[in-house]
């Protein structure tokens, strides 16, 4: 009887912990362009075709967090990048952040530390820092991060999670802090930049979780080596981008997540960007209608299957505490907010109607 009671208590505590863990998971999307779509009068529709208010509808789909990017001075971005949605300056993000917090979401702020897109292929130095001495760049990062957060906190738009950089596997503020994850050059400067950004976050938003975001989820050696360089850095979450067309099969991601749990057991892991194509219509980068179809068809059903398999896998990993879709708000129906289509959102670009992947996505936060 005594052994039976012990087993019962253990199982009860395990179930309790699992339930608590499920409740703590974050689900949402990077909807940085939503204010622009709403300003253009864009209509979003549910699966029955009824018009909806996106922030209200996302809550119905179990979302509890919203991610928004911040550029240093997007007015300096190229016309091409502005046409792709680069417009999020401090005023834009502060006003949107106020709305996000008012609606009861957790707010993830994504510092790009550039005037335009920051990703594996480009981490351009902002215009305002091009003539700053390299030794002073950590101070520039600190002051900019601190000042931006002070504005948001004062306005009632305090972030709950903060990315210090966006997809920075290859460093930031190129060329001076450009790194190779398997190389040795410029790491001292990159770490100093990240330390300065993290310090400002801790001072102004002490309760916020700090995220370091990379995009090599399909390359364990690069991911491990990268975060090994940051062993002394003060941060909370390993943030990963995972797109099946660039980062290999879901099973490869699963192996990376297992390895992160072993090598970095004190860090939460969040998939801060994911998405999959449902079409290549009006897509300026696609060379054919079936490009990137190695794992999933380029159809709405293919997108749904991907989402189902990704969510099912992520729910098996206790260290994964967040999942965010990138650009789910894309909806070209009745507007010209962007100059081309990406077709990886969760709404149909022709009708504005929600796609089947949305329901699969919501299962991430359901009790295990």
Please outline the major beta sheet: 8 strands, parallel, barrel
Mean pLDDT: 94
Q: Tally the helices: what do you get?
A: 12
**Inertia-based shape:** globular
Q: Which terms would index this structure?
A:
globular, 38% helix, alpha/beta, TIM Barrel, 8-stranded parallel β-barrel, 12 helices
Model description:
The structure is a single chain. By secondary structure, the chain is α/β, with parallel strands linked by helices. The protein has one domain (26-365): Glycosidases (TIM Barrel), CATH 3.20.20. The protein contains twelve helices and twelve strands. Strands 1-4-5-6-9-10-11-12 form an eight-stranded parallel barrel, surrounded by four helices. A two-stranded antiparallel ribbon has the order 2-3. β11, α11 and β12 form a beta-alpha-beta unit. α6 packs parallel to α7 (187-204). It is globular, with a radius of gyration of 20 Å.
């Amino acid at each position: 009887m005594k052994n039976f009671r012990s087993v019962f208590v253990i199982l009860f505590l395990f179930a309790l912990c699992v339930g608590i863990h499920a409740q703590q998971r974050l689900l949402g999307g990077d909807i940085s362009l939503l204010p622009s779509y709403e300003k253009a009068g864009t209509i979003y529709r549910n699966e029955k075709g009824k018009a909806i208010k996106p922030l209200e509808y996302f809550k119905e789909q179990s979302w509890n967090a919203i991610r928004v990017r911040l550029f240093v001075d997007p007015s300096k971005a190229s016309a091409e990048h502005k046409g792709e949605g680069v417009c999020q300056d401090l005023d834009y993000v502060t006003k949107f952040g106020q709305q996000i917090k008012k609606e009861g979401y957790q707010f993830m702020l994504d510092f790009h530390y550039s005037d335009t897109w920051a990703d594996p292929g480009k981490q351009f130095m902002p215009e305002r820092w091009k003539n700053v001495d390299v030794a002073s760049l950590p101070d520039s990062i600190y002051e900019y991060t601190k000042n931006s957060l002070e504005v948001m906190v004062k306005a009632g738009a305090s972030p709950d999670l903060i990315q210090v950089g966006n997809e920075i596997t290859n460093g930031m503020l190129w060329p001076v802090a450009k790194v190779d994850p398997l190389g040795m050059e410029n790491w001292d400067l990159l770490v100093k930049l990240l330390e300065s950004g993290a310090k400002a976050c801790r001072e102004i938003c002490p309760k916020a979780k700090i995220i370091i975001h990379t995009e090599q989820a399909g390359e364990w050696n690069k991911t491990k080596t990268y975060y090994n360089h940051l062993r002394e850095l003060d941060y909370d979450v390993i943030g990963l981008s995972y797109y099946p067309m660039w980062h290999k099969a879901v099973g490869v991601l699963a192996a990376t997540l297992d390895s992160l749990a072993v090598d970095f057991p004190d860090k939460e892991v969040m998939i801060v960007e994911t998405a999959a194509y449902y079409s290549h219509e009006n897509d300026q980068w696609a060379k054919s209608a079936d490009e990137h179809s190695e794992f999933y068809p380029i159809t709405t059903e293919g997108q749904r299957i991907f989402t189902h398999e990704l969510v099912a896998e992520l729910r098996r990993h206790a260290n994964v505490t967040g999942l965010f879709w990138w650009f789910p708000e894309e909806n070209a129906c009745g507007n010209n907010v962007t100059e081309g289509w990406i077709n990886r959102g969760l709404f149909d670009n022709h009708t504005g109607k929600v796609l089947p992947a949305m329901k699969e996505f919501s299962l991430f936060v359901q009790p295990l």
